Amino acid sequence: MTPETTTDVAILGLAVIGILIAFTIIGETLRMRLPHGQTDPVVEAFNMRVHTWWGLAILLTLAVLLGKIGVILLFAFSSFAALREFLTFARKRRADHLSLALACFVILPLQYLFVWLDWTALFTVFIPVYAFLLLPIVSALRGDATNFMGRVAETQWGLMICVFCISHVPALLTYDMPDGSDRSILLIVFFAMVVQLGDVFEYYAGRRFGRRKIAPKLSPKTVEGMIAGVLAAALIGAVLSWVTPFGLIGAAAMAALASLTGMFGSLVFAAIKRDKGVKDWSHLIPGQGGLLDQLDSVIFAAPIFYHVTQLVWA
Amino acid sequence: MTDLASLPRRIAARATGHALAFVARFITAVRADWRGIEPVAKQRVYYANHVSNGDMPMIWTVLPGHMRRQTRPVAAADYWLKNKIRAFVGPEVFNCVLIDRRPEVDDKPLDKIIEALDEGSSLIIFPEGNRNMTDDPLLPFRSGLYNMGKARPHVDLVPTWVANLNEIMPKGEIIPLPLICTVTFGAPIHVEEGESKDAFLKRAADALVALAPESRDEIVTPERATEPAP
């Protein structure tokens, strides 16, 4: 990385630390204002989340400072952990053992290798075309037709969600900045910040002012909360526009788009979890369930953000 | 002198143990659910369901260090002494109590188990005797659990359910699938005064099956929509 890029990474890192310190102070103040010996579950949950955000922020900062290899490894391991959670609840039979093992130990590393090698023509089609056709063949060769469509479909969903979509976050590294600089790594930080902060505003604004639920049977998300979240994301995007090639309006629009797709992604995940009858995907992250619970919005937003960036600002 | 000479071997055994636990965590993110007991180093017999050769390492992995040190899996000698690597891993890494299953050997397995209990060790046993390849949750228990419970009534018998391993590593497959595994420890049971063998074994099996997660296809969708915060 050039010194300018490193400086900008450091500035963003400090900004994140500033936000987290503010959240930590808010959480601790709320806790102290309670009478001695009492606890408020909402406050405790908030404090627990702030702890997790500290951990995630430190991880992402370290990965970004390591550069390309750090970011790719971080997201490859995230994909692995996400796929591990998804497949635990996916429909599968003994006959799928080999195709699922291939998905985890061959397809996943190859996808990240292609991202690393910058083979755009391959990593954008590798899973939706090649894995899509290969894995059902491997399953079918074992000759078990029970529930075949369901098994193949759920496996394919797992790969798309956990590997294809997540790999589009580090794929932003392959974007050539219009000014020829190596600042595309900052787009990852921009993307992660607007999606996460949009979610936070959506959640707490929805709790406070939310009236109309968008899908009452699935999720407590409200229209008011989502509007507040998208507006907050747009505002944060505008503030951070100096790290992007989008310009002020463009950055706000991209942030709003990422945040909105992320929120709908989270809704889709709520539907999947309801279907499978699970509350949390796993217990990987204390207080927040599994990695998929944490990444659900990032997953849906990443490919859209990547492709719109490539289309509009190529 | 012998202690000093065996030191590198013991270090190698410890290192291998940590490496195995790391692999188990990497593949399955294995987690303990202490539902009926506290994670304290009390003398116990953990009796578990057995569907895969990975069961014992999973239980061993989730035991915290202070418990792991005093816990010995009871395992078949013919399996663990088959080659040099197994003979190192079984007796030295896992510190197994090896049981000779050959019918011609006049070696009473229960004696070795009682001996290990009297040394103060906790044990991991698989009372079904064999890996369960059927669709039933458990095979009928052998009498070993009853006999040790009767011989040493003060020892807690802890039902221990290992979930998902039949999908992670089914018999005949070489590559384990990365899926989440949970080891659930239930409330301890004891052989009651005057309880018959069959009655006790049924009670023990019921206590173990009760820890199994419900089959996912039958889960009733919960009433309230919940959403984790971002």
Roughly how many Å is the radius of gyration of chain B?
Answer: 18 Å
Mean pLDDT of chain A: 92
Low-confidence stretches of chain B: 216-226
Question: What global shape of chain B is seen?
Answer: globular
Number of strands of chain A: 0
CATH architecture of chain B, by name, is 3-Layer(aba) Sandwich
Distance, first to last CA of chain B: 59 Å
Largest sheet of chain A: none
Total helices of chain B: the number is: 10
Count of discrete domains of chain B: 1
Spell the H/E element sequence of chain B: HHEEHHEHHEHEHEHEH
What percentage of the residues of chain A does DSSP assign to strands (E)? Answer: under 5%
Overall average residue pLDDT of chain B: 87
- What is the level 1 CATH name of chain B? Alpha Beta
Calculate the terminal CA-CA distance of chain A, rounded to whole Å.
Answer: 21 Å
Please give a structural write-up.
The complex is a heterodimer of chains A (314) and B (230). By secondary structure, chain A is mostly helical. Helices cover 75% and strands 0% of the residues of chain A. Chain A folds into three domains: 66 residues; 105 residues; 139 residues, no CATH class. Chain A is globular, with a radius of gyration of 20 Å. Chain B has one domain: Glycerol-3-phosphate (1)-acyltransferase. Helices cover 38% and strands 14% of the residues of chain B. The longest helix of chain B is centred in the first third of the chain and has 22 residues. A seven-stranded mixed sheet of chain B has the order 1-7-6-2-5-3-4, with helices on both faces. Chain B is globular, with a radius of gyration of 18 Å. At the A-B interface, helix 2, helix 3, helix 4, helix 8 and helix 10 of A face loops of B.
